[in-house]
Amino acid sequence: MATLRSRFGMAALAAAFALLPAGLALAEEPDSFLISYETTPSFGFDLPKLKAASYDERAAFSQKILVDIVPRIADAVGIDSENIISEVTPGGYLLKTNASLQSAAEVSSDEAERFAAGLGYVFRQYSVLVSGLDDEGGNTGYVVVTFPENTLDAKVAQAFFEKAASVEKGLGGGYTAFGDDQIFLNVADSAGKPYSGLDNAAFLAGLTKAAAEFGPPQPTIDGTGTASARFVGNEWDKQAQGEAYVEKLGGPGSEIVKSLDAIEFDYAKLVQDAFN
Questions:
Q1: What is the 3-state secondary structure (H, E, C) of the chain?
Q2: pTM summary value
Q3: pLDDT at 10
Q4: Which domains does the chain show, CATH number per domain?
Q5: Average confidence score pLDDT of the chain
């Protein structure tokens, strides 16, 4: 079986959306997934310094969590952390850019969902995005916007995010980035309706126009197509014990949940030291 590193390389993981050859995954191989998430909690912590924290401060914290906590979560849910490639990257949601983590893994769909649930549970996230890179039946449109080498940082990513939203309001929903690639996913709800309000053709057209009018640095559209994408989530204000995540992790009292509770204890100390 090809390793994750040999399939994606150590450079921009986002190229997998555009460049993964059809039929590369053999029938007995797991699928390839990207898991997108943040490491600063959305619920359950009183962190007076978090709101004012800079992007660089959040990125430094995310890097520490990537090293100290993420591999433990993967191992706890039964995924070999050595087979996961993760990066701290800019990530956008509703016209705001924050430091985020992207993890690429060769796992089954169920394993990807379990990993996402573990991340959401420990980091107290309302949702974690799971994207299938080689799902031939996917109907989520994606567009890869590529910038000149070493020019895409958080400031440029945010500026292009705002430019895209000025062309089409629906393009201000969210993005992720790897290296010099900024990826926009036209994620849909359970009924198949894109949150952007745009069909895939209009989604691409809007980003193409934004790229043509943006710069410097001048980006290009470097890849388009379809993938599968879904949110794994928990409504913390209604499910304060993470019940939706726990259900995917074997239920209350499962060995996985017990392991994640121990990891969350260590995570809580790190986040409080950083932002309390």
A1: CCCHHHHHCCCCCCHHHHHCCCCCCCCCCCEEEEEEECCCCCCCCCCCCCCCCCHHHHHHHHHHHHHHCHHHHHHHCCCCHHHEEEEEEEEEECCEEEEEEEEEEEECHHHHHHHHHHHHHHHCCCEEEEEECCCCCCCEEEEEEECCCCCCCHHHHHHHHHHHHHHCHHHHCEEEEECCEEEEEECECCCCCECCCCCHHHHHHHHHHHHHHCCCCCCEEEEEEEEEEEEEECCCCCCCCCHHHHHHCCCCCCHHHHHHHHHHHHHHHHHHHHHC
A2: 0.85
A3: 30
A4: 29-137+230-275 (3.30.70), 142-223 (3.30.70)
A5: 87
